Amino acid sequence: LCQSMIAEYLKTCDYERHLKNIRKIYLEKKHFMQEQLEKAFGDQISLAKCEGGMFLWGEFFNQKIDTGLLLEKTLEQKMAFAPGSGFFADNAPRNTFRLNFSKSSFEEIEAGVEILRRAVEELK
Predict the structure, then answer these.
(1) Of 30, 65, 64, 66, which is closest to residue 47 (Cα–Cα)?
(2) CA–CA distance, 65 with 119 (Å, rounded to integer)
């Protein structure tokens, strides 16, 4: 049933146009999030070059910033992200993170980065 539904959907919609549109939107949101993070953290973080997808990968240069503890702080403000340690098999660095930009509006991205900035200040 699911395959039939997907096949019908692909027959009746302009999927290529949808992909082109969503790629444009994601690229705009990615750039906006990068700008907000650079404005908030300057040279305190490094962002990986993102060629696609829906996430930004970052690392705090300050090794003492534990993104697991940082997540606890941001959750209090209803902002979530993925601590990077969950993406490693061994010897996970505690100062890395992954942020999703696909679902959030520009306003939510701006507010989320500000929550993250304040939480980092609290942990210092």
Answers:
(1) 30
(2) 10
Centre a 10 Å sphere on the Cβ of residue 37 and count the other Cβ atoms it contains.
21
Exposed/middle/buried for residue 70 (C-beta within 10 Å: 0-12, 13-18, 19+) = buried
Longest dimension (CA), the chain: 55
Which tens digit of pLDDT belongs to each residue from 15-40? Answer: 999 999 999 999 999 999 999 999 99
Question: Strand, helix or coil at 107?
Answer: helix
**In angstroms, rounded to a whole number, what is the distance separating the alpha carbons of residues 36 and 34?**
5
Q: Please provide the size of the chain in residues.
A: 124
Position 9, amino acid: Y
Output the CA–CA distances (angstroms, integers) from residue 72 to 29, 58, 66, 75, 107, in the order listed.
Answer: 25, 18, 10, 5, 22
pLDDT given for residue 39 in this prediction: 97
pTM (whole model) above 0.85:
yes
